[in-house]
Amino acid sequence: MTCILKISIFNETVWISREKWTCELVCKKWKNHEVIFHITTLLCSKKITDMKVINIHKRVIQQPKSKISNILDTLSSKNDQLWPNEKWPSMIFKNGLMEGARGGHGPIKYSIQKYKPGVQIEFNFIKPDGFIGIHKFEIEEIDSTKTEIKHTVKMYLSGKGILIWYFAIKWLHDALLEDCLDKVENNFSKEKVNTKWNFWVVTLRKILKKN
Known about the structure:
By secondary structure, the chain is α+β, with helices and mostly antiparallel strands. The protein is 26% helix and 38% strand. The protein is built from 4 helices and 10 strands. Helix 3 packs across helix 4 (199-210). The longest helix is centred in the C-terminal third of the chain and has 27 residues, at 160-186. The chain is globular and about 45 Å long.
């Protein structure tokens, strides 16, 4: 990649290539809220049309793979032990977990692209506009008593999708996924884990509740 510009967004590095004028951003766990200037700088370049986002949340659970696999397969069911529907809009698939099924949670809509029971479920974004890509849950055995559960968003943002992601959905998504991993861990822990929402997440939820 021939780099002509390197900037920072949320303390992460963004490279804009000369050939494709696209941005690649690896989204990790954000540690500050210094966003306005950097995002405005990025969006003011009329030649930037797409941004690649990779957002990963993962946690190692002190349980064998079989138990975590069973939890994955409860997703979107009446006995959902994975999705934090106590705090967030439920993930709904009317026809259950099967490839080709369409559903989502709240305004985020997607279809099931791949489903390997107990191992992986991958969704293809339908809405919002400007979200082009997938998100997925994966289960991986570390050893006989430890299992990693991971959620990955891998997509390109375009148009208003860039603004929607960075000023709203990204923050809500990160909070939701940590609540999701807390729920998995709390299925097996006496001391309950509860990841605290940051100020922006609390503010966004209040705004959405009013609307």
